[in-house]
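Sorry, I am new here, but would you mind making up a protein's amino acid sequence and the tokens describing how it folds?
***
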Amino acid sequence: SHKIFKRDLEAHLKVCETRKDRERILGRPWYSEGCNAGGSGELGNDKEMGEKELLDKLRLAASDKVGEGATGVKSKRARHKTQASLIVDTALRMAPSLFKGDDVAVVDLGAGKGGLADAVVAHRQPQAVVFVERESRRHKADGKLRRLEDLEVERVRGDLADVDLARVGTLRGRVCVGVAKHLCGSATDLALNAFVALSEARGVAVATCCHHRCEWSSYVGRDYFRAKTGGSAADFARIARWSSWACQVANGTTGEHAAPVCADDLRDYTSEQKREIGRRCKALLDAGRLDFLRRHGLAGARSAYCDVELSP
């Protein structure tokens, strides 16, 4: 968004690129306002339980372990490319035939410049790649991939909340595999809602991120959360906020991909105890997403794909 003096508004609207972009998006066949918003499960109430009671239920509901062991990679050189390659490697270790087939389309959800789909193609070229990203990006992988033979490439520029993947022409009639890297907070839930709407959804590999930005209104695991904790929207907000402690660094503050520390949170616990609580919070939120996928016919598991030095 941007600001214009009232006296200049009428003239500006005739040339405003933001307005033109918005009009172009509204005219796309895949556009369906809010089709992936709203999450999944009952909204419940806002009654808040005590801190100790919520922590006791958290310990019963979630582990502080993250699936299989980390990869041992510690270098931050070529960070994003390394992360993308490790995500693909981890997905293939867990589901070796994920990208195999005669007519497979890879959907890069929240694609950015498209580095994750590029990593998939480097391993095994599918028949199609669709990038979904709301922002305009420069130096994208699209140009490189469009030069490959027998690969159809489409970029959908729209918000994940509003993209009906079933109406994206390139995906019709194809087996679809979703991938996503560091979809912050609720964007992961929007992506999962979008993906399961596809009739030929085979599987999805997602590197979750920024759990403190998860929102009850769009979270897809509400029923799971309430079944495991008996918690409300207010309790969910605390769990999301506490997840930041998993990214705590040596000086007692939280590192990148985390919200600022709230001084009133968990004041009677040591730094190591807070890190453990944060890890459990992340595990609980991701477990709700896995439950959502299982209810849509997709088995899944949670796994580490790199060391914390490369990605927290």
In short: The chain has a mean pLDDT of 86. Residues 94 and 249 are 30 Å apart (CA to CA). The beta strands are 104-109, 128-133, 152-157, 175-184, 201-209.
